[in-house]
Amino acid sequence: MDVEILSRIQFAFTIMFHYIYVPLTMGLGVVLVIMEAMWLKTGLPKYHNMARYWTRVFGLTFAIGVATGIVLEFEFGTNWAAYSRFVGDIFGSALAAEGIFAFFLESGFLAILLFGWNKVGPKMHFFATCMVCLGAHFSAVWIVIANSWMQTPAGFRIEYNGEIMPPGFVPTADQILHSRAVVENFWAMLFNPSSMERLSHVIVGCWQAGAFLVISISALYLLRGRHLEFAKTSIKIALIFAAIASLLQLATGAKSADGVTHNQPAKLAAMEGVFKTQANAPMFIAGYIDMEKEETVGLQIPGMLSILVGGSTNTVVTGLDAFPKEDWPPVQAVFQFYHIMIAVGMALIGIAWLGMFLWWRGQLFNTSNPLVRAYYWILVLSVLGPQIANQTGWFTAEMGRQPWIVYGLMRTSQGLSEVVAANHVLASLIMFTFIYVLLFAVFIYLLTRKIRRGPDDEEESEEMPASWVALIERRKGQASAAG
Amino acid sequence: MDFNTLWFILVGVLFTGYAMLDGFDLGVGALHLFVKKDEDRRIFLNAIGPVWDGNEVWLVTGGGALFAAFPMAYATVFSGFYLAFMALLCALIFRAVAIEFRSKENWGWWRTIWDVGFSLGSIGSGFLIGVAMGNILQGIELDARGNYIGGFLALLNPYAILLGFTTIALFAMHGSIYLVMKTEGELQARVKRWVNRTIGIFLFFYIVLNVATLVYAPHLLEIVRARPWSLAIFILNVLVVMNIPRQNHKGNEFAAFLSSCGAMILLMTLFGMTVYPNMVLSMPNPEHSLTIYNASSTEKTHFIMLIMAIIGMPVVLAYTVSVYYIFRGKVKLTPHSY
Q: Is residue A159 part of a domain?
């Protein structure tokens, strides 16, 4: 294997692994904010115990997220040095901003969130939880902006041999190593054509990951008949969150797909399996790409894609035939990953709203009903849904960008480090595989153990500081006065 | 002062922050295996527990700032030191997860594995950071486009390795001084004895390193001759290090730690002054060197990032200080500690 494919595999592998944990911390962060807010409002110990338990799960995912995140910042330079030189003026500032505005915020207040229960008052602790959650979201903002710039570059000019070139200049293969993108308009770079819709799609995907983790673990407790009070309250909060997020994701997804249509038509053609530029283009529910014959076979809705793209069956959808073959993304992979993401996303909407329906009918906790029990088993497995959808969604976005590392400007093969040899990348890839398999095994083991051990069910935790107890007493007093 | 010099200083400030803060928790890691009792090891881990993660962010932000302000230098160093940086990543990952995983089970073998992972990860990180700095000081072989062409083994030269060991000794010294602040009783008495030993070891390496510089990096002598006040910083640095045992003897644990922090700052200042205005010195072809000018991004990016730093850094400093203040004092173990 050559250094390009090895470097791509390594980057994909390390970022995929990292991205198991990122959505969990962002989604769980929001859940923690909700739970702690309810604890502050009601003073009920059950909310305190819930916040404590989910904080422990959060701490575990956060630690692995941090440890695997630093790898990615290094890899831009280690494996993609030519790319780093080309985009440093733009991409680098987004990374630096992520450090200053997001990581410091997150890690600083994480200390209080994890270890500060007995050191600070309840309001200060709640504030810290909010800041950790906010920091996690800020980091998504900056990194998605940076990635979106790679998809839809804007606000820049190309500098070739030290001279600024006119807008629209695309460096040739000979020129690329003497060229770089320099910032011309910072705000146009930040709010490039795809950044806001992709950011919303990413953030809501992360919320789903957190919500369904809570749903899954709570459903397991309900099936086993353990920690019922805790599990019921947790699952209610998470179900509402999941139901809202899943529907919202449909909207952000539609907006993102619409953006791809305009900004990256070759990617859209691959996602939908459209070879010929045509009116009345069908939309495939599922299918298979015959690369020999250059056609897509499968279950389709005639004319639907044209309607989605332009509002009528007469709308002409640009096919892959509008692009030279060397500019095609890997069509089969992009098509399949995209369709898996859609299918899972739809299933998640169904699962979440079925839960809401059962709740409305008063059947949600009727665990003696075998159908409800079957539904609970689906809920237990549902934690995998957002994970699969998030990963395949990113596959669609990143493989759909190929063969470009910066869309329309620099090819992935041109972005490599010139001095790094294939056997070096192979060595590091083996190292990461070894470490990450080990980490994943330990993670699953420790998570299972936390689930087995469960939350503290006693009325009040013994080490609760005086200020917390005072809060509970005050709320109790108010409640009895009101009663 | 131009933007390039300003950003050279600011990137330097971030890496100094990293050395000063993560330096002590890498040092605690280096000393971790020298206590045998489980309770003592837990005290060590909890001494850095709430802060190590934030400390590592200084490295991440420093790396990001280097990428943004001097992309050519970032690309050259990271791709040129490929295998060394992969090893550094391995060390940093193990050390991070070891802190989190260790306390989760009571089994002896489990704790031993993560103790060793934590300690070797910390020692390895310090060593590799030192090796990288040693190569930057000494100069590495660059081609006309600024790519490193010397190969991996050339990085492991005697001078760089010596600086690697010096860095471990420095971090161990800094870590032991931090631990004096966080421990009490019999454990503290033991840690106090380490302080004097680690200071001795560090000063030994530091002096050997300065002698070795004459042999392996004679070009640095020219720079010292051109900037004679760097000698004053060197002398001040030795005095600040000597002040540490004095403060400890008087029972001023916090003053001793501040003194050690001062030593880190002076060392990094000295490093920066010796390197400036180069980012990556090319040897043997100095005309290929990456300087703060030819490795730089545009003035516009420097300006944008300066605005970000002016907005962001005061806030960062404010809550970093608050977090340290909240977690001040001796470590008390509770069931929820590591």
A: no
Q: How many CB atoms lie within 10 A of CB A316?
A: 13
Residue A455, pLDDT score: 86
Distance from C-alpha of A126 to C-alpha of A6, rounded to nearest angstrom: 45
H or E segment and range at residue B53: helix B52-69
DSSP for A152-219, please give it: S--SEEEEETTEEPPTT----TTTGGGEEEEES-HHHHHT-TTHHHHHHHHHHHHHHHHHHHHHHHHH
**Domain-located, residue A400:** yes
Q: Which domain holds residue A388?
A: 3-153+192-277+318-476
Query: Mind listing the pLDDT tens digit for each residue in A143-171?
Result: 999 999 999 999 898 889 888 888 888 88
Residue among A73, A100, A431 whose CB faces B313 most closely: A100
User: What residues in A contact B101, CB-CB < 8 Å?
Assistant: 442, 446
DSSP character string of B54-94: HHHHHHHHHHHHHHHH-HHHHHHHHHHTHHHHHHHHHHHHH
Our CA angle for A9, B92, B306, nearest 5°, is 90
Q: Is the pLDDT of residue B334 over 80?
A: no
Cβ–Cβ gap A93/B60 under 8 Å = no
> Which pLDDT tens digit goes with each residue over A412-444?
999 998 888 899 999 999 999 999 999 999 999
Q: A417: Cβ–Cβ under 8 A, 6 or more apart, which residues?
A: A7, A78, A79, A80, A81, A82, B75, B79, B82
**Would you put residue B185 in left (φ > 0), alpha (ψ -120 to 50) or beta?**
left
Q: Which of B72, B92, B101 sits opposite A446 (nearest CB)?
A: B101
A73-105 per-position pLDDT tens digit = 899 999 999 999 999 999 888 888 888 898 899
Contact B89 A417 (CB under 8 A): no
Residue of A nearest to B89 (CA): A71
* Full DSSP string of A291-330: TTTTEEEEEEETTHHHHHHHSSTTPPBP-GGGS-GGG---
User: Is residue A176 included in any domain, yes or no?
Assistant: no
Cβ contacts of A428 on chain B, cutoff 8 Å: 82-83, 86
pTM: 0.91
- Residue matched to tokens 């806030």: B315
* Helix locations, B103-227, DSSP H: 108-138, 158-182, 185-216, 219-226
Q: How many domains does chain A have?
A: 1
- Give all strands of the β-sheet with A163-164 in edge-to-edge order: A163-164, A156-160, A179-183
CA distance A113 to A399: 38
Cβ contact B304–A64 (<8 Å)? no
Question: What is the distance between the alpha carbons of residues A11 and A428, in angstroms, rounded to a whole number?
Answer: 11
Sign, Cα dihedral of A409, A196, B309, B59: negative
**Chain A neighbors of B21, CB-CB under 8 A:** none
- Closest Cα of chain A to B299: distance in Å? 10
Q: What architecture is domain B3-326?
A: Up-down Bundle (1.20)
pLDDT digits (tens, 9 = 90+) for B65-75: 999 999 999 99
- The answer to whether the Cβ–Cβ distance between A99 and B297 falls below 8 Å is no
A449 to chain B: which residues are within 8 Å by CB? 104
Chain A residue numbers with beta carbons less than 8 Å from the beta carbon of B50 are 111-112, 114-116
B301 and A117: CB-CB below 8 Å? Answer: no
**Nearest in space to A276 (alpha carbons), one of A256, A293, A258, A259:** A293
Q: What is the ipTM of this complex?
A: 0.89
Report the residue of chain A nearest B307, measured CA to CA: A97
With beta carbons under 8 A apart, name residues in chain A contacting B97: 63-64, 67, 439, 442
Nearest by CB to residue B79, choosing from A81, A88, A449, is A81
The whole-angstrom separation of Cα A220 and Cα B270 is: 59
Cα A142 vs. chain centroid, distance in angstroms? 13
Percent of chain A with pLDDT over 70: 95
